Amino acid sequence: MRGATQVKWAACAVAVALAATACGGGDSGGGGGGADGIVSSSWGDPQNPLEPANTNEVQGGKVLDMIFRGLKKYDPKTGEATNMLAEKIETKDNQNFTITVKDGWTFSNGEKITAKSFVDAWNYGALLKNNQKNAYFFGYIDGYDKVHPETGTASATTLSGLKQVNDMTFSVKLTQKFSLWPDTLGYPAFAPLPKAFFTDHAAWVSKPIGNGPYTIDKYTKGSSMDLRKWDDYPGDDKAQNGGIDLKVYTDNNTAYTDLTAGNLDLVDDVPASQLKNVKSDLGDRYINTPAGIIQTLAFPFYDPQWNTAGAIKVRQGLSMAINREQITNQIFQKTRTPASDWTSPVLGEDGGFKKGLCGKECTYNAAEAKKMIQDGGGIPGGQLKISYNADTGSHKEWVDAVCNSINKVMGNNKACVGAPVGTFADFRSQVSQQKLHGAWRAGWQMDYPLIQNFLQPVYYSNASSNDGKWNNKQFDSLVNKANAESDKAKAVSTFQDAEKVMVQQMPVIPLWYQNGSAGYSENVTNVSLNQFSVPVYEQIKVK
Amino acid sequence: MGRYVIRRLLQMIPVFFGTTLLIFLMVNVMGDPIAGLCGDRQCDPATAAQLRSEFGLDKPVWQQYLTYMGNVFTGDFGTAFNGQKVTELMATAFPITIRLTLVAIFFEIVIGISLGVVTGLRRGRPIDTTVLILTLVVISIPTFVTGLLLQLLLGVEWGVIKPSVSSEAPLNELIIPGLVVASVSLAYVTRLTRTSIAENARADYVRTATAKGLPRRRVVVRHLLRNSLIPVVTFIGTDVGALMGGAIVTERIFNIHGVGYQLYQGILRQNSQTVVGFVTVLVLVFLAANLIVDLLYAVLDPRIRYA
After folding, report:
1. Would you identify the family this protein belongs to, as annotated (chain B) (predicted)?
2. Yes or no, beta carbons of B216 and A3 under 8 Å apart
């Protein structure tokens, strides 16, 4: 019966297929629990090579957080910067700092950490030749303009403001007074680097060596990284688990599916489409806590029609025309909080967050909003276009909702429209080349939990991320004054005074504070997110 | 035959240059990729300028293309933005996708052709109608629906498979994704075979073969099927290229780090080196598959051999 053999063959193939998958489906992660248990966690492919001063996004930052410890560390609960590798940081004038490094710390390859480990790393990070995307973090240090000129080639290879005093001490001279500067040193860009980084750079990048609670056991670029507890880690924040297996997912929906199927322990980015189900799927294993991220609408001040006295009223009116409460509830399922200042709740009251600082200008009021916009001469050009990138982040939904809210207030269906841009790169290049003449979606993710970080890099004249080119002398001088203040409370309140200038000028419209959201399996406990919305990996316990 | 192959190979050259140039231009039109590298903040101008010159983005497009093609012929496909060689990316992505494609083709051939033969020989019977309706259903449902549904049912609800494929992507984990990738083509293969078989079943040579007293299975397999396979082979051949490039959706759903995933990332990050490199290889695969199809004709039907 040769005719039938084919059918038989097919039947066999299907049977084999089902059998094979059945075998494949049996074993699920797990393994030994307790302090040696391994936690599996979702990951995204880092955009840049893993170097402390070259990593500017969350995925690479996660790894640096596990394998590096710097002079300071931000408390995962309060965000307070506490000394980690720093024995002491002293200053008399808020401009010259002397930093003493704690004795007894080593890299995981046994090399001792000295002042030189920091000086070399910082000089490397600042030097233009090395293409480090976070180089501007060293911009406050004297001599930065020599090693990293805006155009042309560097005329020096080391920062003149950075000097090694002795084995464990080095001094830093800043270009300006900056009292909160020591608190910025918890940022990964300021991490120390071992000699191996400089002598065999390619090998280091393929398997980085740091000084944090974990060491990298296996790194397959683009697909996974296995981190293991470093038993000799000298810090007091030792890992509570045996290690973390990071798995790159092509889509965060798949990661979420894997979590619900029990193949994954931790997802630190719950996809927007699952927010409706997350409570029923995970119950109290779902985390939704504030993160240091604020989303805003920015305006082009290089365009004269937005830089008028009338336009101020228009912007204030637009801000009042946005029903933040409704949008955060319906579109974001409460994973955003309506913003009423330009910072973030993670700073806390002492750190400079002030709920309601923006006042009525950031509160929905349809009648008043319409009046303000009309008093200001109407929307420049007759229509507000809000540009956003359509490829990631599901921005379309909320941009449409914001426009809807504005249109309703104006009683005009065409008062506001969304203007999608295909890719993030194209969107960013349009923003940075000042091609946009309407509003655009903007956001700020903090580098360190300081009010300074929410204001100076984004709104100070010609600051690195002041994309709209807003400038205001009063704001600038208040920021300068705040930076020179040696008393922290006073510095914070001066920064808030600068923020009040923003209420009167409304250079950008604050929309909402973004939360970090995560979900975890029944295998693990003690999962939390820090202020950067990164899981506090070393505290996770395996059942 | 030899001249025919050579002519076909020569035809590949302009196609190869044309497609790569087109892709190169398309990626370039999308704008400045460096702007996306620094996240929501602006890259500082000096670093951006340096990165641009490192990736050759500061030169005119035609010059970029020439340098790029020059490098390609020495086996250098450039570097992706994350510092990895594109050839390295290919070395990890292509084996996985090839495996997935093989699984898909296997299903197409085994299930598709056998269903086609069965229904073609039993036209109008209940089994024929059932299969026809089934294939219609499969064709009309988009692959991402089938993919997500199977993932949810088999992976989450019943726990038969793992919802995501591990990074090594062994064959047994690729069976369900392979089935999903193959599903639509499989339905077409079934229908093509069915029609072709039904048509040829009434041909003179089949009647002759039957009249000679040959056993039925020999008539079906040796005479009827061999002649009826020509359109099917054409379809499967061209499908190889389509499957490799078009698995983007399925690869995303099942977390397969293959060609589709790398292409998707390359496009999102506007990394022309990755995109052009991968597409170049895909074009080559497509051309090779077409060539093989043409050569297979000659095997199936000697009359085509000297054309």
Report:
1. Belongs to the binding-protein-dependent transport system permease family.
2. yes
Q: Residues of A with CB below 8 A from B81's CB? A: 47-48
DSSP E strand boundaries for A390-504: 416-421, 439-445
Interchain CB contact of B87 with A (< 8 Å): no
Contact A295, A328 (CB under 8 A): no
Query: How many beta carbons lie within 10 A of that of residue B167, not counting itself?
Result: 16
Encoded tokens for A242: 């045996």
Of A56, A251, A422, the CB nearest to B30: A422
Q: What is the pTM of this model?
A: 0.84
- Across the interface, whether the CB atoms of B41 and A429 are under 8 A apart is answered no
Tell me the residue length of chain A: 543
CB atoms within 10 A of CB A309: 8
Say how far apart CA A543 and CA B152 lie, in whole Å: 27
In three-state secondary structure terms, A529 is strand
Distance from the Cα of A422 to chain B's closest Cα (Å) equals 8
Taking contacts as CB-CB distances below 8 angstroms, the residues of chain B near A251 are 252-253, 255
Tens-digit pLDDT profile for residues A271-320: 888 888 898 999 999 999 989 999 999 999 999 999 999 999 999 999 99
Among B31, B42, B82, beta carbon nearest to A45 = B82
Which of A13, A45, A128 is closest, CB to CB, to B265? A45
- B89-129 pLDDT tens trace: 899 889 999 999 999 999 999 999 999 999 988 888 899 99
CA distance A163 to A116: 9
Using one digit for the tens of pLDDT, what is the confidence trace for B184-223?
899 999 999 999 998 888 888 888 988 998 888 888 888 8
Strands (E), B117-257: none
Spatial distance between the Cα atoms of A322 and A405, rounded to a whole number of angstroms: 6
| Residue A543: Cβ within 10 Å count | 11
Q: Closest Cα of chain B to A430: distance in Å?
A: 9
Query: Residue A22 above 80 pLDDT?
Result: no
Name residue A226's amino acid: D
Give me the pLDDT at residue B240, please. 84
Question: Which residues are bridge partners to A389 per DSSP?
Answer: A421
Q: Which residues contact B214 (CB under 8 A, 6 or more apart)?
A: B223
Distance CA B122, CA B20 (A): 47
What's the CA gap between B99 and B97, in Å, rounded? 5
Option in A48, A128, A257 nearest B155 (CB) = A257
Chain A contacts of B44, Cβ < 8 Å? 135-136, 148, 150, 464
* Cβ–Cβ contact B117 with A under 8 A: yes
A and B: number of Cβ contacts within 8 A:
217
